[in-house]
Design brief:
Length: 135
Protein backbone atom coordinates (compact mmCIF):
# COMPACT_ATOMS: atom_id res chain seq x y z
CA UNK A 1 0.00 0.00 0.00
CA UNK A 2 2.87 2.39 0.73
CA UNK A 3 4.33 1.96 -2.76
CA UNK A 4 1.00 2.87 -4.39
CA UNK A 5 0.67 5.99 -2.23
CA UNK A 6 4.25 6.95 -3.05
CA UNK A 7 3.58 6.57 -6.80
CA UNK A 8 0.53 8.80 -6.49
CA UNK A 9 2.54 11.41 -4.64
CA UNK A 10 5.32 11.32 -7.22
CA UNK A 11 2.70 11.79 -9.94
CA UNK A 12 0.83 14.60 -8.16
CA UNK A 13 3.88 16.74 -7.34
CA UNK A 14 4.80 17.42 -11.02
CA UNK A 15 1.13 17.97 -11.88
CA UNK A 16 0.84 20.50 -9.05
CA UNK A 17 4.01 22.29 -10.17
CA UNK A 18 2.78 22.38 -13.76
CA UNK A 19 -0.51 23.93 -12.66
CA UNK A 20 1.30 26.46 -10.50
CA UNK A 21 3.47 27.55 -13.43
CA UNK A 22 0.47 27.77 -15.75
CA UNK A 23 -1.12 30.38 -13.49
CA UNK A 24 1.87 32.72 -13.78
CA UNK A 25 2.03 35.49 -16.42
CA UNK A 26 3.77 34.66 -19.65
CA UNK A 27 6.81 36.71 -20.58
CA UNK A 28 5.14 38.00 -23.75
CA UNK A 29 2.18 39.47 -21.84
CA UNK A 30 2.35 43.11 -20.81
CA UNK A 31 0.80 44.82 -17.82
CA UNK A 32 -2.14 47.12 -18.55
CA UNK A 33 -1.92 48.90 -15.20
CA UNK A 34 -0.73 52.21 -16.72
CA UNK A 35 -3.64 52.17 -19.20
CA UNK A 36 -6.58 51.51 -16.89
CA UNK A 37 -8.90 54.41 -16.22
CA UNK A 38 -10.64 57.11 -18.24
CA UNK A 39 -8.69 59.10 -20.80
CA UNK A 40 -10.14 62.32 -22.23
CA UNK A 41 -9.28 63.18 -25.84
CA UNK A 42 -7.28 66.43 -26.06
CA UNK A 43 -6.27 66.65 -29.72
CA UNK A 44 -5.59 64.88 -32.98
CA UNK A 45 -2.64 66.06 -35.04
CA UNK A 46 -1.14 65.10 -38.37
CA UNK A 47 -0.54 66.39 -41.88
CA UNK A 48 -3.15 69.12 -42.43
CA UNK A 49 -5.05 67.99 -39.31
CA UNK A 50 -5.30 69.78 -35.97
CA UNK A 51 -8.51 68.88 -34.17
CA UNK A 52 -9.54 69.52 -30.58
CA UNK A 53 -12.79 69.17 -28.64
CA UNK A 54 -13.32 72.91 -29.14
CA UNK A 55 -12.82 72.81 -32.92
CA UNK A 56 -14.99 69.69 -33.43
CA UNK A 57 -17.63 70.13 -30.73
CA UNK A 58 -16.89 66.56 -29.58
CA UNK A 59 -15.88 65.29 -26.18
CA UNK A 60 -14.36 61.84 -26.51
CA UNK A 61 -13.32 59.50 -23.72
CA UNK A 62 -11.45 56.23 -23.86
CA UNK A 63 -11.98 53.89 -20.91
CA UNK A 64 -9.70 50.92 -20.20
CA UNK A 65 -10.46 48.29 -17.56
CA UNK A 66 -7.96 46.00 -15.87
CA UNK A 67 -9.89 43.09 -17.44
CA UNK A 68 -8.68 44.15 -20.93
CA UNK A 69 -11.97 45.79 -21.97
CA UNK A 70 -12.30 49.23 -23.54
CA UNK A 71 -15.10 51.67 -24.36
CA UNK A 72 -14.99 54.76 -26.56
CA UNK A 73 -17.65 57.40 -25.89
CA UNK A 74 -18.41 60.54 -27.86
CA UNK A 75 -20.46 63.27 -26.16
CA UNK A 76 -21.30 60.72 -23.42
CA UNK A 77 -22.67 58.17 -25.95
CA UNK A 78 -20.85 54.84 -26.33
CA UNK A 79 -19.70 54.50 -29.95
CA UNK A 80 -17.42 51.47 -29.66
CA UNK A 81 -16.32 48.82 -27.20
CA UNK A 82 -14.49 45.52 -27.05
CA UNK A 83 -11.23 44.05 -25.86
CA UNK A 84 -7.70 45.30 -26.24
CA UNK A 85 -4.24 43.77 -26.10
CA UNK A 86 -0.68 45.06 -25.92
CA UNK A 87 2.27 43.72 -27.86
CA UNK A 88 5.65 44.77 -29.19
CA UNK A 89 6.47 44.81 -32.88
CA UNK A 90 8.50 46.75 -35.44
CA UNK A 91 6.66 49.78 -36.78
CA UNK A 92 6.33 50.23 -40.52
CA UNK A 93 7.02 53.98 -40.22
CA UNK A 94 10.45 54.08 -38.54
CA UNK A 95 11.28 50.34 -38.41
CA UNK A 96 11.88 50.50 -34.65
CA UNK A 97 10.59 48.20 -31.92
CA UNK A 98 7.43 49.84 -30.52
CA UNK A 99 4.57 49.04 -28.18
CA UNK A 100 1.25 48.52 -29.99
CA UNK A 101 -2.29 48.42 -28.70
CA UNK A 102 -4.81 46.36 -30.66
CA UNK A 103 -8.49 47.19 -30.27
CA UNK A 104 -10.88 44.39 -31.21
CA UNK A 105 -13.20 46.77 -33.05
CA UNK A 106 -11.00 49.82 -33.72
CA UNK A 107 -7.75 48.66 -35.28
CA UNK A 108 -4.17 48.96 -34.11
CA UNK A 109 -2.26 51.99 -32.84
CA UNK A 110 1.33 52.62 -31.77
CA UNK A 111 1.65 53.68 -28.13
CA UNK A 112 3.72 56.80 -28.63
CA UNK A 113 3.64 57.85 -24.96
CA UNK A 114 2.07 56.59 -21.76
CA UNK A 115 2.52 57.94 -18.23
CA UNK A 116 0.31 58.79 -15.26
CA UNK A 117 -1.42 61.69 -17.05
CA UNK A 118 -0.71 61.37 -20.80
CA UNK A 119 -1.58 58.79 -23.44
CA UNK A 120 -0.59 59.37 -27.07
CA UNK A 121 -1.55 56.87 -29.75
CA UNK A 122 -0.37 57.01 -33.35
CA UNK A 123 -1.33 55.43 -36.66
CA UNK A 124 1.40 53.19 -38.08
CA UNK A 125 1.78 54.92 -41.43
CA UNK A 126 3.71 57.98 -42.64
CA UNK A 127 0.58 60.09 -43.09
CA UNK A 128 -0.85 58.84 -39.81
CA UNK A 129 -2.44 60.84 -37.07
CA UNK A 130 -1.45 61.17 -33.43
CA UNK A 131 -4.22 61.11 -30.82
CA UNK A 132 -3.46 62.83 -27.50
CA UNK A 133 -5.39 61.97 -24.31
CA UNK A 134 -5.14 63.03 -20.67
CA UNK A 135 -6.43 61.60 -17.41
Amino acid sequence: MKISAMKKLLFLIPVFLLLLCACDNREDEFSNEAYTGTWKWVSTAGPNVNETPLSTGKTVSLDFTSEWQYTISENDVEISSGTYSLYEDVSSTDHQQRMFIQFSADGIKIVKEINATTLSLQDDDVTGLTYHHEK
